[in-house]
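Async update (no meeting this week)

Hi team, since we skipped the sync, here's where things stand on the single-chain job. The sequence we agreed to prioritize is pasted below, unchanged from the tracker. I ran it this morning and attached the output directly underneath so nobody has to dig for it. Comments welcome in thread, and please keep replies under the output.
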Amino acid sequence: MTESTSTGVTRQRPRRAIKPRWSGRRKALVAIGVVLALVIAAIGGYAVMLASTYQQNVTTLPDVFPVESDRPERVAGPAGEAMNILLVGSDTRGELGSNDVDDVRPSLADVIMVAHISADREEVHVMSIPRDTWVEQPNGSMGKINWSFGTEQGAAGLVQTVEKLIDARIDHVAAIDFEGFKGMTDALGGVTVNNTIEWQRRGEYFGIGPVELNGKRALMYVRERKLTGNDFNRAQQQQEFLRAVLRKTLSGSTLSDPAKVFDLVSSISPFLAVDAGLTPQTIVGLAAELRDLRADDIEFFTMPNAGSAYVGDQAVVLIDDPTRAFVAE
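Output:
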């Protein structure tokens, strides 16, 4: 724009700086971008915090696998993508890594399960192995399967015995102290199991049907065998408890609540011992592959057997070879 002076000289009037006008759409996009950046940063920090909590608290089991010559051959082809995880429960899970036989033997293994994850990651089968199952030990003698990690080989002895029993390789090992069941239950806000046998201990009543468990009652539930009959019944109770935990854990109300997930990891990891390969990265990768899995997709059963008997003065569970071979296949 120009203007004339009294002398007739025309001069240019300075232009005002024009501020760019942002459209509402552009503002919205920038706002969304900022929010996404904050969310990604939060998620990343949360994941790092979870991994750090897990690594600081968990016990790593040394030398958990037997020598290669004592193991089944690796399966070739698509079936080789399946995964077998040995789950062990006892009152002293940390001792699984001990080389002191006298230190380990008194605790033994109260829970022995094999979780088989299908190659397509669409199904999980969890098989309980009765702890009194009469098997060949790593040293060639016969004995109960829960004696196996009380041998000189420690955890590798139990892995070797289980691998020979199912004729398949174990990929990972996770052992949990029963106290971890207590913390796990409380972190989830309790779980509901379908109880099949009525019993009562130390003022706690467990009726037939839906039963609410807090941490204290959960510990009693997975340990009890005298009042409920035998180890077969106890195995069913342990399966039912894990089913209830998975049902609660895989629900949206748990997975969508960072505080609950953090409490869960914090409560379990101090009572957990795993092989060196079961790192946070491995667990996150497996969780991603199993993201569509629901509790109903997980089948629990007890290893088929030929029933109970006595070998000398030992009450044992006998192997039924035809059904064992079928399960292995």
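Quick observations from my side:
Residues 50 and 262 are 7 Å apart (CA to CA).
The first helix runs from residue 24 to 57.
Reply here if anything looks off.
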